[in-house]
Amino acid sequence: MAVFFGLLGSVAADVALVLGARGGVYLGGGILPRFVPALQASTFNARFVAKGRLQAYLDRLPVYVITASYPALPGLARALADALSHGRPPIG
Known about the structure:
Blueprint: H1 2-19, E1 25-27, H2 36-41, H3 44-49, H4 55-59, E2 63-65, H5 72-85
Parallel strand pairs: 1-2
């Protein structure tokens, strides 16, 4: 697990830099929410910010772990409610 979390930190930082993340990095998936304590104790954060002169930027960027079982459903429900309240048919 230590290697996995270290690599995840490096890749997550690379993606954040490529996309210009400003609001944070959100991590989700099948197994990750089950290992939050191990993630916090790992080298993830050290590897996440180890990007040379960009360390200060990444240090200020929050990292979140999505723990909801179905994280897309609340947003989908809101989009549908908004579409229906404005008289637009749902997309699809």
